[in-house]
Amino acid sequence: MNLLSSIRIALAALRLNLMRSVLTMLGIIIGVGSVITMIAVGAGAEARIAEQINSLGSNLIVVVSGAITSGGVRLGFGTEMTLSEDDAQALERDIPEILMAAPGVRGSAQVIYGNLNWSTVIVGSTPDFLTARGWGVVQGRPFEQADLDRAAKVALLGQTVATTLFGNADPVGQMIRIKKVPFTVVGVLDRKGQSMQGQDQDDTIVMPLSTARNRVLGASEVNRRAVGAILIKMRDGADMHAAEVQIHGLLRQRHHLQPAQDDDFWLRNLSEIAQAQEASSRVLTLLLAAVASVSLVVGGIGIMNIMLVSVTERTREIGLRLAVGARSRDILSQFLIEALTLSLTGGLVGIAAGAAASFTIGHWAHWQTELSLSAILLAVGFAAAVGVFFGFYPARKASRLQPIEALRYE
Questions:
Q1: According to the model, what pLDDT value does residue 222 have?
Q2: How far apart are CA 63 and CA 25, in angstroms?
Q3: Secondary structure letter of residue 237 according to DSSP
């Protein structure tokens, strides 16, 4: 008996008990659908994190100023301006692996255009800030060193601010007021999306550091060159951990900190944090897929039970086939094909169910999902393996029946 005949007989046997076959496949359908859905949700989360990593820029280390203590309570980092533009210049000069170090200040202010107003984040930095962040300008131009030197009243708008104040109109060349100071919009930044903390990175205005400090956010009375943070971009191929040690040592030396004293700054490798989150997301995806695959195993047990029942019900049929010349391997292949047909058919229906579930989750829950070919092939391959594994025992039992005993079976 050839393979085609075995498949035809298997399909005919399954059609005779259609409802039972459908119910048997239900476990495989749920298992494959769950695996595909979980992998799609996990892949969407990984893609989202990858976008956030790209939005941060690559090879970045951020140094934030220290914390002050008020009323016996130590406030968070960035509340005391312990860093300065001189620190940034020293880092760039003394550590060869540093490509650029952009000092900056940050605050919030009300921006007004016509009869519209909007509260947004103000970032003051050097022209290197945009390069370090990989932040392009889609309209107009970025600010330049000349703007920084003369504290020019120029501003770059994030996409959210530009859309809120100007709608679809071109904001370049328009005048806005920030804390009653008139500014000329010289450019619009490229869209960045949400940060890893869920903040809208496009809800911001970027301007020269000198302008922000002298005209909008105010300067420190103690040190007029003080800044809130330094964004450091390392050269390609630089050892980030070694660079962190050098930066840490140089800043402690410049700030005259004794060995027993705590740091008056906070240093973090942004790429490392982002990669850690990506790795966590990948592990979570694998965990969810592993949990979902339990349904496949349960479905396989269901197939084995039904196949054992089928062997018992068709004992006389098996005996008759053996008596007219069928070989044991023909019986074995026939029942294996029946089990495989059940699992593969369930797998195909499960793919459709998983795709529909992924689309529904993405549409209604606004979660990013990605249905991949590798996930489909993995789920179907696992379903086929389950069918063969759990179908082998009933098929082997059927193939070992003795013709005489099988024909006498009542």
A1: 65
A2: 57
A3: T
Cβ-contact 294, 35 below 8 angstroms: no
CA distance 205 to 212: 10
Report d(CA 195, CA 193) in Å as an integer.
Answer: 7
In the prediction, which pLDDT does 341 show?
Answer: 85
What element of type H or E holds 215? Answer: none
5-21 as b/e: b if 16+ CB within 10 A: ebbebbeebbeeeeeeb
**Residue 174: C-alpha distances to residues 108, 137, 160, 188, 190 (Å):** 21, 16, 16, 12, 18
The residues, ordered by sequence, that sit 6+ positions from 275 with a Cβ below 8 Å of its Cβ are 53
Q: What is the pTM of this model?
A: 0.63
Q: Is residue 71 within a helix (H) or strand (E), and if so which, with residue range? A: none
Secondary structure of residue 358 in the 3-state scheme: helix
**pLDDT higher than 90, residue 207:** yes
Dihedral angle of Cα 262, 73, 83, 127, to the nearest 10 degrees: 130
pLDDT tens string 252-295: 999 898 888 888 888 888 766 666 777 777 777 777 777 777 77
Inter-residue contact 83 to 71 (CB < 8 Å): no
pLDDT of residue 329: 83
Q: Is there a contact between 226 and 195 (Cβ–Cβ < 8 Å)?
A: no
Classify residue 216 by its DSSP letter.
Answer: I
pLDDT category, 360, cuts 50, 70, 90? confident
The span from the CA of 68 to the CA of 183, in Å, is 33
In 57-174, where does DSSP find H-type helix? 85-94, 128-133, 145-149, 159-166
| Greatest alpha-carbon span in the chain | 105
Residue listed under structure tokens 């893609």: 47
Amino acid at 384: A
Q: How far is CA 58 from the centre of its chain?
A: 16
Confidence at residue 373, expressed as pLDDT on a 0 to 100 scale: 83
Whole-number Å distance between alpha carbons of 337 and 394: 12
Residue entry with tokens 């499960």: 350
DSSP state of 148: H
CB of 38 closer than 8 Å to CB of 294: no
Report pLDDT digits (tens) over 295-304: 778 878 888 8
pLDDT of residue 103: 93
